[in-house]
Design brief:
Length: 477
Protein backbone atom coordinates (compact mmCIF):
# COMPACT_ATOMS: atom_id res chain seq x y z
CA UNK A 1 0.00 0.00 0.00
CA UNK A 2 1.26 3.51 -0.79
CA UNK A 3 2.20 5.87 2.02
CA UNK A 4 1.40 9.58 2.34
CA UNK A 5 4.05 11.95 1.03
CA UNK A 6 5.07 14.07 4.02
CA UNK A 7 8.88 13.93 4.06
CA UNK A 8 10.30 17.28 2.83
CA UNK A 9 13.49 15.58 1.63
CA UNK A 10 11.45 13.18 -0.52
CA UNK A 11 9.47 16.10 -1.96
CA UNK A 12 12.82 17.64 -2.89
CA UNK A 13 13.87 14.42 -4.64
CA UNK A 14 10.72 14.44 -6.75
CA UNK A 15 11.09 18.16 -7.47
CA UNK A 16 14.64 17.64 -8.69
CA UNK A 17 13.33 15.50 -11.55
CA UNK A 18 11.20 18.25 -13.11
CA UNK A 19 13.05 21.25 -11.75
CA UNK A 20 11.67 23.43 -8.96
CA UNK A 21 9.68 25.65 -11.33
CA UNK A 22 7.63 22.62 -12.42
CA UNK A 23 7.16 21.16 -8.95
CA UNK A 24 4.25 23.06 -7.41
CA UNK A 25 4.10 23.19 -3.61
CA UNK A 26 2.30 26.45 -2.83
CA UNK A 27 -1.39 26.07 -2.04
CA UNK A 28 -2.40 28.70 -4.60
CA UNK A 29 -0.52 26.88 -7.38
CA UNK A 30 -1.86 23.46 -6.42
CA UNK A 31 -5.49 24.59 -5.97
CA UNK A 32 -6.57 24.44 -9.67
CA UNK A 33 -5.57 20.76 -9.76
CA UNK A 34 -7.77 19.84 -6.79
CA UNK A 35 -11.26 20.91 -7.89
CA UNK A 36 -13.20 18.97 -10.50
CA UNK A 37 -15.91 20.45 -12.72
CA UNK A 38 -18.96 19.29 -10.80
CA UNK A 39 -17.57 20.17 -7.39
CA UNK A 40 -18.26 16.67 -6.07
CA UNK A 41 -14.67 16.10 -4.99
CA UNK A 42 -12.28 18.44 -3.23
CA UNK A 43 -8.82 16.91 -3.44
CA UNK A 44 -5.65 17.42 -1.43
CA UNK A 45 -2.03 17.08 -2.52
CA UNK A 46 1.33 18.23 -1.19
CA UNK A 47 2.90 18.33 -4.66
CA UNK A 48 2.01 18.74 -8.34
CA UNK A 49 4.69 17.62 -10.78
CA UNK A 50 4.74 18.87 -14.38
CA UNK A 51 7.22 16.70 -16.33
CA UNK A 52 8.42 17.84 -19.75
CA UNK A 53 8.81 14.46 -21.43
CA UNK A 54 8.43 10.71 -21.15
CA UNK A 55 11.83 10.26 -19.53
CA UNK A 56 10.87 12.59 -16.69
CA UNK A 57 7.60 10.70 -16.21
CA UNK A 58 9.61 7.48 -16.03
CA UNK A 59 11.98 8.95 -13.44
CA UNK A 60 9.04 10.11 -11.32
CA UNK A 61 7.43 6.67 -11.37
CA UNK A 62 10.73 4.93 -10.57
CA UNK A 63 11.08 7.07 -7.46
CA UNK A 64 7.41 6.60 -6.57
CA UNK A 65 7.79 2.83 -6.91
CA UNK A 66 10.92 2.86 -4.77
CA UNK A 67 9.27 4.93 -2.02
CA UNK A 68 5.67 3.59 -2.22
CA UNK A 69 4.35 7.05 -3.11
CA UNK A 70 0.92 7.34 -4.71
CA UNK A 71 0.64 9.05 -8.10
CA UNK A 72 -2.54 10.57 -9.58
CA UNK A 73 -2.16 11.26 -13.34
CA UNK A 74 -4.07 14.32 -14.52
CA UNK A 75 -4.79 15.75 -17.95
CA UNK A 76 -7.05 18.74 -18.51
CA UNK A 77 -8.92 18.07 -15.25
CA UNK A 78 -12.25 17.87 -17.10
CA UNK A 79 -13.25 14.42 -15.83
CA UNK A 80 -16.69 14.00 -14.27
CA UNK A 81 -16.26 11.02 -11.93
CA UNK A 82 -13.34 12.11 -9.73
CA UNK A 83 -10.79 9.92 -11.51
CA UNK A 84 -8.28 12.78 -11.74
CA UNK A 85 -8.69 14.04 -8.17
CA UNK A 86 -6.19 13.23 -5.38
CA UNK A 87 -7.97 12.00 -2.27
CA UNK A 88 -7.93 14.07 0.94
CA UNK A 89 -5.48 13.01 3.63
CA UNK A 90 -3.63 10.52 1.42
CA UNK A 91 -0.59 12.59 0.48
CA UNK A 92 -0.89 11.70 -3.22
CA UNK A 93 1.20 13.43 -5.89
CA UNK A 94 -0.63 14.92 -8.86
CA UNK A 95 1.22 14.16 -12.10
CA UNK A 96 0.15 16.77 -14.65
CA UNK A 97 0.77 15.84 -18.29
CA UNK A 98 0.13 19.38 -19.57
CA UNK A 99 3.74 19.97 -20.69
CA UNK A 100 3.79 16.83 -22.85
CA UNK A 101 2.04 18.81 -25.54
CA UNK A 102 3.84 18.08 -28.80
CA UNK A 103 2.48 16.56 -31.97
CA UNK A 104 5.46 14.39 -32.82
CA UNK A 105 4.48 13.46 -36.36
CA UNK A 106 1.63 13.52 -38.87
CA UNK A 107 1.43 10.96 -41.68
CA UNK A 108 -0.94 12.13 -44.42
CA UNK A 109 -0.57 8.91 -46.41
CA UNK A 110 -1.18 6.52 -43.54
CA UNK A 111 -3.58 9.07 -42.02
CA UNK A 112 -2.17 8.94 -38.51
CA UNK A 113 -0.90 11.42 -35.96
CA UNK A 114 1.42 10.80 -33.01
CA UNK A 115 0.32 13.16 -30.25
CA UNK A 116 1.64 13.43 -26.71
CA UNK A 117 -0.70 13.05 -23.77
CA UNK A 118 -0.89 16.76 -22.97
CA UNK A 119 -2.01 17.82 -26.44
CA UNK A 120 -5.36 19.57 -26.09
CA UNK A 121 -8.06 17.88 -28.17
CA UNK A 122 -8.79 21.06 -30.11
CA UNK A 123 -5.09 21.28 -31.00
CA UNK A 124 -5.17 17.75 -32.42
CA UNK A 125 -8.32 18.56 -34.40
CA UNK A 126 -6.67 21.66 -35.89
CA UNK A 127 -3.44 19.85 -36.77
CA UNK A 128 -5.44 17.29 -38.72
CA UNK A 129 -7.58 19.96 -40.37
CA UNK A 130 -4.51 21.92 -41.46
CA UNK A 131 -3.50 19.02 -43.74
CA UNK A 132 -6.99 18.32 -45.01
CA UNK A 133 -7.76 15.46 -42.61
CA UNK A 134 -10.15 14.92 -39.74
CA UNK A 135 -9.67 13.78 -36.15
CA UNK A 136 -13.33 13.16 -35.34
CA UNK A 137 -13.44 13.06 -31.54
CA UNK A 138 -15.63 15.99 -30.48
CA UNK A 139 -16.50 16.91 -26.89
CA UNK A 140 -17.95 19.92 -25.14
CA UNK A 141 -14.64 20.26 -23.27
CA UNK A 142 -12.44 19.97 -26.38
CA UNK A 143 -10.83 23.36 -25.71
CA UNK A 144 -9.28 22.10 -22.47
CA UNK A 145 -9.38 18.29 -22.29
CA UNK A 146 -6.22 16.45 -23.31
CA UNK A 147 -5.48 13.39 -25.43
CA UNK A 148 -4.09 11.42 -22.49
CA UNK A 149 -7.26 11.98 -20.50
CA UNK A 150 -9.41 11.17 -23.53
CA UNK A 151 -7.63 7.84 -23.81
CA UNK A 152 -7.65 7.11 -20.10
CA UNK A 153 -11.43 7.59 -19.95
CA UNK A 154 -12.10 6.09 -23.41
CA UNK A 155 -13.93 9.28 -24.34
CA UNK A 156 -16.90 9.15 -26.69
CA UNK A 157 -18.59 12.37 -27.73
CA UNK A 158 -20.90 13.27 -30.58
CA UNK A 159 -19.27 11.36 -33.47
CA UNK A 160 -19.15 7.84 -32.01
CA UNK A 161 -21.98 6.79 -34.33
CA UNK A 162 -19.69 7.05 -37.36
CA UNK A 163 -16.14 6.87 -36.01
CA UNK A 164 -16.23 5.05 -32.68
CA UNK A 165 -14.93 6.16 -29.31
CA UNK A 166 -11.33 6.77 -28.33
CA UNK A 167 -10.50 3.07 -28.25
CA UNK A 168 -11.37 2.86 -31.94
CA UNK A 169 -9.45 6.04 -32.74
CA UNK A 170 -6.10 4.85 -31.34
CA UNK A 171 -3.67 2.47 -33.03
CA UNK A 172 -0.85 2.43 -30.49
CA UNK A 173 0.39 4.06 -27.31
CA UNK A 174 3.52 4.89 -25.39
CA UNK A 175 3.11 4.35 -21.66
CA UNK A 176 5.19 4.41 -18.50
CA UNK A 177 4.60 1.47 -16.16
CA UNK A 178 4.30 1.89 -12.38
CA UNK A 179 7.95 0.85 -11.87
CA UNK A 180 9.18 3.47 -14.36
CA UNK A 181 9.74 1.17 -17.31
CA UNK A 182 8.68 2.63 -20.66
CA UNK A 183 6.57 0.63 -23.08
CA UNK A 184 7.23 1.85 -26.63
CA UNK A 185 4.01 0.81 -28.33
CA UNK A 186 3.59 3.60 -30.88
CA UNK A 187 2.71 1.31 -33.76
CA UNK A 188 0.68 2.77 -36.60
CA UNK A 189 -0.36 -0.56 -38.08
CA UNK A 190 -3.99 -1.13 -38.91
CA UNK A 191 -3.42 -4.88 -38.69
CA UNK A 192 -1.28 -6.31 -35.89
CA UNK A 193 -2.22 -9.62 -34.31
CA UNK A 194 0.96 -10.25 -32.34
CA UNK A 195 -0.25 -11.40 -28.96
CA UNK A 196 -2.40 -9.74 -26.31
CA UNK A 197 -3.58 -6.21 -27.11
CA UNK A 198 -1.84 -4.33 -24.31
CA UNK A 199 -2.98 -1.00 -25.72
CA UNK A 200 -6.58 -1.75 -24.83
CA UNK A 201 -5.67 -2.39 -21.20
CA UNK A 202 -4.41 1.17 -20.77
CA UNK A 203 -7.25 2.82 -22.69
CA UNK A 204 -10.13 3.31 -20.26
CA UNK A 205 -8.02 2.32 -17.22
CA UNK A 206 -8.09 5.89 -15.84
CA UNK A 207 -4.40 5.91 -14.95
CA UNK A 208 -4.61 2.88 -12.64
CA UNK A 209 -2.18 0.72 -14.64
CA UNK A 210 0.37 3.30 -15.77
CA UNK A 211 0.70 6.67 -17.49
CA UNK A 212 -0.05 7.10 -21.19
CA UNK A 213 2.47 9.60 -22.55
CA UNK A 214 1.75 9.52 -26.31
CA UNK A 215 -0.54 7.84 -28.80
CA UNK A 216 -0.97 7.08 -32.49
CA UNK A 217 -4.32 8.54 -33.48
CA UNK A 218 -6.36 7.55 -36.52
CA UNK A 219 -7.27 10.32 -38.93
CA UNK A 220 -9.88 10.37 -41.69
CA UNK A 221 -10.49 12.25 -44.93
CA UNK A 222 -12.19 15.56 -44.22
CA UNK A 223 -15.81 15.61 -45.43
CA UNK A 224 -16.38 17.45 -48.72
CA UNK A 225 -20.00 18.13 -47.89
CA UNK A 226 -21.75 18.74 -44.61
CA UNK A 227 -25.39 19.21 -43.60
CA UNK A 228 -26.82 19.70 -40.13
CA UNK A 229 -30.53 19.44 -39.36
CA UNK A 230 -32.35 20.57 -36.23
CA UNK A 231 -35.85 19.12 -36.01
CA UNK A 232 -38.79 18.94 -33.61
CA UNK A 233 -40.39 15.53 -33.02
CA UNK A 234 -43.26 14.15 -30.95
CA UNK A 235 -41.42 11.71 -28.69
CA UNK A 236 -38.40 9.39 -28.42
CA UNK A 237 -40.26 6.63 -30.29
CA UNK A 238 -40.63 8.94 -33.29
CA UNK A 239 -36.99 9.99 -32.94
CA UNK A 240 -35.96 6.33 -33.11
CA UNK A 241 -38.00 5.83 -36.31
CA UNK A 242 -36.34 8.92 -37.77
CA UNK A 243 -32.93 7.55 -36.81
CA UNK A 244 -33.62 4.28 -38.64
CA UNK A 245 -34.78 6.23 -41.68
CA UNK A 246 -31.65 8.39 -41.57
CA UNK A 247 -29.52 5.25 -41.48
CA UNK A 248 -31.27 3.96 -44.59
CA UNK A 249 -30.86 7.22 -46.52
CA UNK A 250 -27.39 8.24 -45.36
CA UNK A 251 -25.57 5.03 -44.42
CA UNK A 252 -22.04 5.79 -43.20
CA UNK A 253 -22.58 9.47 -44.02
CA UNK A 254 -24.78 9.75 -40.93
CA UNK A 255 -22.20 11.12 -38.47
CA UNK A 256 -24.38 12.38 -35.63
CA UNK A 257 -27.86 11.87 -34.20
CA UNK A 258 -28.58 13.66 -30.91
CA UNK A 259 -31.77 13.67 -28.85
CA UNK A 260 -32.86 16.65 -26.69
CA UNK A 261 -35.97 17.36 -24.58
CA UNK A 262 -37.92 20.61 -24.55
CA UNK A 263 -36.89 21.39 -20.97
CA UNK A 264 -33.24 21.21 -22.02
CA UNK A 265 -33.86 23.68 -24.83
CA UNK A 266 -35.59 26.01 -22.37
CA UNK A 267 -32.69 25.84 -19.90
CA UNK A 268 -30.17 26.46 -22.66
CA UNK A 269 -31.91 29.47 -24.21
CA UNK A 270 -32.49 30.86 -20.71
CA UNK A 271 -28.93 30.60 -19.42
CA UNK A 272 -26.45 30.33 -22.33
CA UNK A 273 -25.52 33.60 -23.97
CA UNK A 274 -26.31 33.63 -27.69
CA UNK A 275 -28.26 30.36 -27.61
CA UNK A 276 -31.47 30.50 -29.66
CA UNK A 277 -34.04 27.89 -30.62
CA UNK A 278 -33.95 27.75 -34.45
CA UNK A 279 -37.62 26.71 -34.62
CA UNK A 280 -40.48 29.17 -34.12
CA UNK A 281 -42.73 26.84 -32.14
CA UNK A 282 -42.02 24.66 -29.11
CA UNK A 283 -41.88 20.89 -29.55
CA UNK A 284 -41.76 18.05 -26.99
CA UNK A 285 -38.46 16.63 -28.27
CA UNK A 286 -35.75 17.60 -30.72
CA UNK A 287 -33.12 15.82 -32.77
CA UNK A 288 -29.87 17.14 -34.20
CA UNK A 289 -28.71 15.24 -37.27
CA UNK A 290 -25.29 15.49 -38.90
CA UNK A 291 -24.64 14.28 -42.46
CA UNK A 292 -21.08 14.21 -43.83
CA UNK A 293 -20.38 13.34 -47.45
CA UNK A 294 -17.01 12.27 -48.78
CA UNK A 295 -18.14 13.23 -52.28
CA UNK A 296 -19.45 16.79 -52.33
CA UNK A 297 -21.73 19.36 -50.78
CA UNK A 298 -24.30 18.53 -53.45
CA UNK A 299 -24.26 14.88 -52.38
CA UNK A 300 -24.79 15.86 -48.74
CA UNK A 301 -27.66 18.16 -49.72
CA UNK A 302 -29.24 15.40 -51.82
CA UNK A 303 -29.20 13.05 -48.82
CA UNK A 304 -30.70 15.76 -46.65
CA UNK A 305 -33.49 16.45 -49.10
CA UNK A 306 -34.25 12.77 -49.58
CA UNK A 307 -34.41 12.27 -45.83
CA UNK A 308 -36.70 15.28 -45.41
CA UNK A 309 -39.14 14.06 -48.06
CA UNK A 310 -39.26 10.52 -46.63
CA UNK A 311 -39.60 11.72 -43.03
CA UNK A 312 -42.36 14.14 -43.98
CA UNK A 313 -44.25 11.40 -45.81
CA UNK A 314 -44.14 9.27 -42.66
CA UNK A 315 -45.12 12.17 -40.39
CA UNK A 316 -41.95 11.92 -38.32
CA UNK A 317 -40.95 15.61 -38.23
CA UNK A 318 -43.09 18.41 -36.80
CA UNK A 319 -40.76 21.16 -38.06
CA UNK A 320 -37.13 21.42 -39.04
CA UNK A 321 -34.34 23.78 -40.01
CA UNK A 322 -31.21 23.02 -42.03
CA UNK A 323 -28.04 25.01 -41.38
CA UNK A 324 -27.27 27.20 -44.37
CA UNK A 325 -23.91 28.47 -43.10
CA UNK A 326 -21.12 27.22 -40.88
CA UNK A 327 -22.09 29.74 -38.20
CA UNK A 328 -25.65 28.38 -38.23
CA UNK A 329 -24.32 24.86 -37.95
CA UNK A 330 -22.24 25.85 -34.92
CA UNK A 331 -25.29 27.58 -33.40
CA UNK A 332 -27.31 24.36 -33.77
CA UNK A 333 -24.59 22.37 -32.03
CA UNK A 334 -24.26 25.01 -29.33
CA UNK A 335 -27.79 24.14 -28.25
CA UNK A 336 -26.75 20.54 -27.69
CA UNK A 337 -23.25 21.06 -26.29
CA UNK A 338 -24.37 23.70 -23.78
CA UNK A 339 -27.15 21.60 -22.32
CA UNK A 340 -25.08 20.25 -19.41
CA UNK A 341 -23.86 23.70 -18.36
CA UNK A 342 -27.33 25.21 -18.73
CA UNK A 343 -28.58 23.04 -15.87
CA UNK A 344 -26.20 24.55 -13.32
CA UNK A 345 -28.07 27.86 -12.83
CA UNK A 346 -31.23 25.84 -12.18
CA UNK A 347 -29.69 24.41 -8.99
CA UNK A 348 -28.50 20.92 -8.14
CA UNK A 349 -28.41 18.23 -10.79
CA UNK A 350 -28.07 14.49 -10.22
CA UNK A 351 -26.23 13.05 -13.22
CA UNK A 352 -26.33 9.70 -14.99
CA UNK A 353 -24.08 8.76 -17.92
CA UNK A 354 -25.71 5.55 -19.14
CA UNK A 355 -26.12 3.51 -22.29
CA UNK A 356 -28.69 0.99 -23.45
CA UNK A 357 -29.17 -0.79 -26.78
CA UNK A 358 -30.26 1.85 -29.29
CA UNK A 359 -33.63 0.20 -29.88
CA UNK A 360 -34.33 0.36 -26.13
CA UNK A 361 -33.77 4.12 -25.70
CA UNK A 362 -37.49 5.02 -25.73
CA UNK A 363 -38.30 2.21 -23.29
CA UNK A 364 -35.48 3.31 -20.98
CA UNK A 365 -36.64 6.93 -20.99
CA UNK A 366 -40.27 6.01 -20.29
CA UNK A 367 -39.39 3.59 -17.49
CA UNK A 368 -36.81 5.87 -15.89
CA UNK A 369 -39.15 8.87 -16.01
CA UNK A 370 -41.89 6.87 -14.29
CA UNK A 371 -39.56 5.60 -11.57
CA UNK A 372 -37.93 8.98 -10.93
CA UNK A 373 -41.22 10.84 -10.75
CA UNK A 374 -42.54 8.25 -8.31
CA UNK A 375 -39.52 8.79 -6.06
CA UNK A 376 -39.36 12.57 -6.53
CA UNK A 377 -42.61 13.93 -7.99
CA UNK A 378 -41.41 17.50 -8.57
CA UNK A 379 -38.11 16.58 -10.19
CA UNK A 380 -37.24 18.13 -13.56
CA UNK A 381 -35.81 15.48 -15.87
CA UNK A 382 -33.31 16.62 -18.50
CA UNK A 383 -32.48 13.52 -20.53
CA UNK A 384 -30.43 14.09 -23.67
CA UNK A 385 -27.54 12.60 -25.56
CA UNK A 386 -26.20 10.43 -28.31
CA UNK A 387 -29.24 8.49 -29.45
CA UNK A 388 -27.30 7.02 -32.35
CA UNK A 389 -25.13 4.98 -29.98
CA UNK A 390 -27.58 4.57 -27.09
CA UNK A 391 -25.73 6.90 -24.69
CA UNK A 392 -28.14 9.08 -22.70
CA UNK A 393 -27.14 11.70 -20.14
CA UNK A 394 -30.09 11.23 -17.83
CA UNK A 395 -29.88 14.24 -15.54
CA UNK A 396 -32.33 15.23 -12.82
CA UNK A 397 -32.55 18.91 -11.93
CA UNK A 398 -33.80 19.80 -8.48
CA UNK A 399 -37.46 20.79 -8.03
CA UNK A 400 -38.10 24.52 -8.21
CA UNK A 401 -37.51 26.07 -4.79
CA UNK A 402 -35.97 22.91 -3.32
CA UNK A 403 -32.99 22.94 -0.95
CA UNK A 404 -29.97 22.07 -3.06
CA UNK A 405 -28.07 20.29 -0.31
CA UNK A 406 -31.05 18.11 0.60
CA UNK A 407 -31.65 17.34 -3.07
CA UNK A 408 -28.04 16.30 -3.75
CA UNK A 409 -28.10 14.11 -0.62
CA UNK A 410 -30.41 11.84 -2.62
CA UNK A 411 -27.76 11.29 -5.33
CA UNK A 412 -27.09 7.66 -4.49
CA UNK A 413 -30.80 6.89 -4.08
CA UNK A 414 -31.65 8.32 -7.51
CA UNK A 415 -28.65 6.58 -9.09
CA UNK A 416 -30.00 3.28 -7.82
CA UNK A 417 -33.44 4.03 -9.27
CA UNK A 418 -32.09 4.89 -12.73
CA UNK A 419 -29.32 2.30 -12.88
CA UNK A 420 -31.72 -0.52 -11.97
CA UNK A 421 -33.61 0.18 -15.18
CA UNK A 422 -30.38 0.47 -17.18
CA UNK A 423 -29.21 -2.92 -15.96
CA UNK A 424 -32.60 -4.50 -16.62
CA UNK A 425 -32.18 -3.44 -20.26
CA UNK A 426 -28.61 -4.88 -20.41
CA UNK A 427 -27.12 -1.40 -20.45
CA UNK A 428 -24.12 0.24 -18.80
CA UNK A 429 -23.96 2.60 -15.82
CA UNK A 430 -20.96 4.35 -17.39
CA UNK A 431 -21.12 5.02 -21.12
CA UNK A 432 -18.30 7.51 -21.62
CA UNK A 433 -17.35 9.27 -18.37
CA UNK A 434 -15.57 6.36 -16.67
CA UNK A 435 -15.75 4.96 -13.14
CA UNK A 436 -13.30 7.04 -11.09
CA UNK A 437 -14.37 7.42 -7.47
CA UNK A 438 -18.01 8.11 -8.18
CA UNK A 439 -19.01 4.65 -9.46
CA UNK A 440 -16.26 2.47 -8.02
CA UNK A 441 -18.34 0.74 -5.37
CA UNK A 442 -21.32 0.40 -7.68
CA UNK A 443 -19.12 -1.27 -10.29
CA UNK A 444 -18.08 -3.89 -7.74
CA UNK A 445 -21.72 -4.49 -6.88
CA UNK A 446 -22.96 -5.04 -10.44
CA UNK A 447 -20.07 -6.89 -12.07
CA UNK A 448 -19.74 -10.62 -11.55
CA UNK A 449 -17.16 -12.01 -9.09
CA UNK A 450 -15.26 -13.44 -12.06
CA UNK A 451 -15.01 -10.03 -13.76
CA UNK A 452 -13.94 -8.26 -10.58
CA UNK A 453 -11.36 -10.94 -9.84
CA UNK A 454 -9.90 -10.55 -13.34
CA UNK A 455 -9.70 -6.77 -12.92
CA UNK A 456 -7.90 -7.17 -9.60
CA UNK A 457 -5.45 -9.64 -11.15
CA UNK A 458 -4.65 -7.18 -13.94
CA UNK A 459 -4.18 -4.37 -11.42
CA UNK A 460 -1.94 -6.53 -9.23
CA UNK A 461 0.14 -7.64 -12.21
CA UNK A 462 0.79 -4.11 -13.46
CA UNK A 463 0.87 -2.27 -10.14
CA UNK A 464 1.67 -4.67 -7.27
CA UNK A 465 2.43 -1.79 -4.89
CA UNK A 466 -0.87 -0.05 -5.63
CA UNK A 467 0.69 3.36 -6.29
CA UNK A 468 -1.16 4.24 -9.51
CA UNK A 469 -4.25 6.35 -8.92
CA UNK A 470 -5.32 4.35 -5.85
CA UNK A 471 -8.99 4.24 -4.93
CA UNK A 472 -10.17 4.70 -8.53
CA UNK A 473 -12.03 2.15 -10.70
CA UNK A 474 -11.48 -0.74 -8.26
CA UNK A 475 -10.89 -0.66 -4.53
CA UNK A 476 -7.57 -1.78 -3.06
CA UNK A 477 -7.57 -5.31 -1.70
Amino acid sequence: MPIALTDPSLIDRFAAITGAQNALTRDSDIAPHLIELRGLYQGESPLVLRPANTDEVAAILRLAHETNTAIVPQGGNTGLVGGQSPRPGKGEIVLSLARLNKIRSLDTVGQTMIAEAGVVLQQAQKAASDVGLLFPLSLGSEGSCQIGGNLSSNAGGTAVLAYGNMRQLCLGIEAVLPDGEIWHGLRSLKKDNTGYDLRDLFIGAEGTLGVITAAVLKLFPAPRGHETIYAGVDNPETALKLFRLAQDYCGPSLTGFELMPRIGIEFTTRHIEGARDPLADAHPWYVLIDISSGQSQDAARAMLEGLFVAADAKGLIRDAAAAETESQRQAFWKMRESMSWAQKPEGGSIKHDVSVPVAQVPEFLASADEAVMKAMPDARIVAFGHMGDGNIHYNISQPVGADTKAFLARWKEMNEVVHAIVLKLNGSISAEHGIGQLKRDELAAIRSPVEMALMHRIKDAFDPKGIMNPGKVIASR
